[in-house]
């Protein structure tokens, strides 16, 4: 039933469940959390799957590329669909469809089938676009950056939760005698698959498309009939944010995928320890991405759009320096510290990017969010190709149960080093582009115009 008096909220109280806006906020970030959990559920278990399926270094690289490549097309498509049909219907179907490959990946017994399931699971990454659209439409312009970043940060933490909990879930199935250690990854992936189906029910039952009701119930005058994708694509600022997001979120996906292997193969960590350490990176999202949105909103009140862009470029520069230091750390303690430091800058940059997205074009929020979000996955895919090329195969003597055995390991040190320098270059490029070619006005008009709509 449409409530024509409902309006977007002008403040965010994360401890409240009052009103459809806050109910939707909590359901959407929680759903996004489990989407990320399912998306990266295999990352901390790749060592087990790699050994059981006898995967080569190149095959592991291809699998990591597949896990992020399908998301590119999915995000572009989802952005247009939610502009037209609303987030509630699209999110429900996305969750149901993506639960299928998550539940079935455990049936893989070859490289090809595993690759195809990993590719299909990557579609769940489009959930981010829906989450950002839904928070954008539920909150007023003065708080959009904070709401988007908080929902995104809480949801992105699902990647860290997967690294932390999936090895424990796999060990739990083994301890209960339901499977062997070698097959534990197969049973563990059932858990996130079931959670996606639960979230589909919650989303369809307890959310609305907008504060005024579902899109199907709104008057035609309140819905855009224009081609929102073209509106988004014609604005050069969309592409600035797309490149920037490739440099922050693209790196986040890379670390979620590769950090567990980096810690096991470079520092000799166990799968459980590597998962917990890599999980730290994901958990940073809980406070760092919201912080990026909060700071961006504060800066936006005084310096407008250009001020937010300056903040974004500075965060990218700090991120790049931190990644180089992380790659060259040489020991696990320093690596953990540097991962924490560059992780804060990276996730703040994520939040700052999506504090800008709603102001590119208020009529095409979904399409802008989709294009920029796809940029993050394009970045992740390109980085994965680079990691595949720069990774080196090494053979080390490892002590297991008092016996020294030879292990085939993968070294990603050179790949992380090059990545850090690339991010530094993008940070400088965004800063120069903003300084030289950005509009000379402060950009406060953009925020005022959006507030008036």
From TrEMBL:
One Pfam family this sequence matches: MFS_1
Membrane-spanning intervals of the chain: 27-49, 61-78, 90-109, 115-133, 154-178, 184-203, 267-288, 309-326, 332-350, 362-387, 412-433
GO terms classed as biological process: nitrate assimilation
Organism superkingdom: Bacteria
GO cellular component entries: membrane
Membrane topology designation: Multi-pass membrane protein
Chief location category: membrane
One MF term in the entry's GO annotations: nitrate transmembrane transporter activity
Keywords: Membrane, Nitrate assimilation, Transmembrane, Transmembrane helix
Major facilitator superfamily (MFS) profile domain sequence ranges: 24-438
Location(s), subcellular: Membrane
PROSITE patterns in alphabetical order: MFS
PANTHER family according to UniProt: HIGH-AFFINITY NITRATE TRANSPORTER 2.3
Similarity comment: Belongs to the major facilitator superfamily. Nitrate/nitrite porter (TC 2.A.1.8) family.
Alphabetized InterPro entries for the sequence: MFS (IPR011701), MFS_dom (IPR020846), MFS_trans_sf (IPR036259), NO3_transporter (IPR044772)
Protein name: MFS transporter
